[in-house]
Amino acid sequence: GLAKPIGLVEGPGGLGQGGLATTLQDDSREAEGKFEEYGYNAQLSDRISLDRTIPDYRPKKCRQMTYSPDLPQVSVVFIFVNEALSVILRSVHSVINHTPSQLLKEVILVDDNSDNVELKLNLDQYVNKRYPGLVKIVRNSRREGLIRARLQGWKVATAPVVGFFDAHVEFNTGWAEPALTRIQEDHRRIVLPAIDNIKYSTFEVQQYANAAHGYTWGLWCMYIIPPQDWLDHGDESAPIRTPAMIGCSFVVDREYFGDIGLLDPGMEVYGGENIELGMRVWQCGGSMEVLPCSRVAHIERTKKPYNNDIDYYAKRNALRAAEVWMDDFKSHVYMAWNIPMTNPGVDFGDVSERLALRQRLKCRSFRWYLENVYPEMRIYNDTLTYGEVRNSKASGYCLDQGAEDDDRAILYPCHGMSSQLVRYSADGLLQLGPLGSTAFLPDSKCLVDDGRGRTPTLKKCEDVARPTQRLWNFTQSGPIVSRDTGRCLEVEMSKDANFGLRLVVQRCSGQKWMIRNWIK
Ligand SMILES: *[C@@H]1O[C@H](CO)[C@@H](O)[C@H](O)[C@H]1NC(C)=O
Ligand SMILES: *[C@@H]1O[C@H](CO)[C@@H](O)[C@H](O)[C@H]1NC(C)=O
Ligand SMILES: [Mn+2]
């Protein structure tokens, strides 16, 4: 079974308090403070050996494989900001201990302007003494974000292959050889070591199931089930085709990475660059794969740096990727974030250089990529209008999917988040709630007038008994009329309803509805 549910990763989430039980009573306050600062149990990390070896979770077959004696060398880049020193050092020790020394050219630590003093002198002194000449430290004089921090590391790297990692990882035995082999065979392959989990509270390592890395239309990453042909093939050690990457670990030919445009330096902080690289490498003639024989364990922190603004940056970066790589499908990204396509309220900067790059590399269409690399994506190209829907009788209120497990649409003060995403499609469906995005997630539901009672319901579109019950006529500033019953969706004032407003289907009284955005 899967150790990791298929779904969003690295999303917001509360602190897991359970792990703190492992720390002693008298210093629990300090432990808690560090936990909140780093998003993992840093005090426990300080007590765990820097040289521990994690369990070997490679598929059995990997252990029998042999590799060429002339593999290219790798430069390993770790990026960090305000990370616990022991966690960074364990990442460094781990890669040095688990990479054949003739293959490891250097380790590059990129400090994105951390505040912690122990990450300055202490770190320098430690690595210069312990690993003289092997570890380079690059320091950003201002905070650039983790995307441009990786690019700083790439500039300094000298080996033919570069691996980029978060600085809270540990390496499995034999991680390097299969990755370097795949890149030596074809330098246009971007290789992702398979990811296992280091529990943030106990630092135990837990194996994750084989997965590819996908994303939603908001361009937020998630683990997905490997492609059917990989599953059918039945070889757990085989590379897994992947549409994009989670981003905490990837290995790439140094020159090729430069040729295809690195990561978009116009993106801020992190989020979206991992998806954009996936689209770009595939559309421009390369490929991306997860390699089950090459494994890295990673801490999913409960708290990230730049946490407060990450939604804004993820949205901004997503729009850059959409505008450059997604052709007509860029509408799906605007829909997913529930923002208009013109004047979206987000300044995504200048993308002209990225568009020129796409021209220069003569890259394929996004449609080609969807069909060949990410067929699990749901396509919403029949959408005519989308966004918040308001009634002239209650203008501060919007149609809302209400509680997720409930089948009632409601009116709720407008906030523009995805529970208030309404889509009206060419065939007359009126759908509410966040885009399901892929076959792995439930899709938004259809508004239904089943002719019984006065309450409109929300149902899975395919479950509606009579298909016409889910069809509506809707024109801007006009009524919303059921094609099945001829009744109208209307607002009724009622003392005992939430906010004094009830959503009903009734004989049309001439109420008008407005929807916010059009697909261009
Ligand atoms: C929508 O996408 C489907 C599947 O790719 C395609 O067959 C259809 O022609 C598209 N429709 C429009 C309006 O672009
Ligand atoms: C819906 O619109 C179509 C096309 O304009 C029209 O023929 C039909 O009568 C309308 N249905 C209702 C119930 O208003
Ligand atoms: Mn990470």
UniProtKB/TrEMBL annotation:
Region (Disordered): 1-20
Membrane topology type: Single-pass type II membrane protein
Substrates-to-products reaction catalysed: L-seryl-[protein] + UDP-N-acetyl-alpha-D-galactosamine = a 3-O-[N-acetyl-alpha-D-galactosaminyl]-L-seryl-[protein] + UDP + H(+); L-threonyl-[protein] + UDP-N-acetyl-alpha-D-galactosamine = a 3-O-[N-acetyl-alpha-D-galactosaminyl]-L-threonyl-[protein] + UDP + H(+)
A Gene Ontology cellular-component term: Golgi membrane
Pathway it works in: Protein modification; protein glycosylation
This enzyme's EC code(s): 2.4.1.-
GO molecular function terms noted in the UniProt entry: carbohydrate binding; metal ion binding; polypeptide N-acetylgalactosaminyltransferase activity
Keywords: Disulfide bond, Glycoprotein, Glycosyltransferase, Golgi apparatus, Lectin, Manganese, Membrane, Metal-binding, Signal-anchor, Transferase, Transmembrane, Transmembrane helix
Gene3D superfamilies: 2.80.10.50, Spore Coat Polysaccharide Biosynthesis Protein SpsA, Chain A
Biological-process GO terms, alphabetical: protein O-linked glycosylation
Location within or outside the cell: Golgi apparatus membrane
Compositionally biased spans, kind Gly residues: 10-19
Every Ricin B lectin domain range: 386-516
CC cofactor: Mn(2+)
CDD domains per UniProt: beta-trefoil_Ricin_GALNT9, pp-GalNAc-T
Biological role stated in the UniProt entry: Catalyzes the initial reaction in O-linked oligosaccharide biosynthesis, the transfer of an N-acetyl-D-galactosamine residue to a serine or threonine residue on the protein receptor. Does not glycosylate apomucin or SDC3.
Similarity annotation: Belongs to the glycosyltransferase 2 family. GalNAc-T subfamily.
Protein name: Polypeptide N-acetylgalactosaminyltransferase
Organism for this UniProt entry: Otolemur garnettii
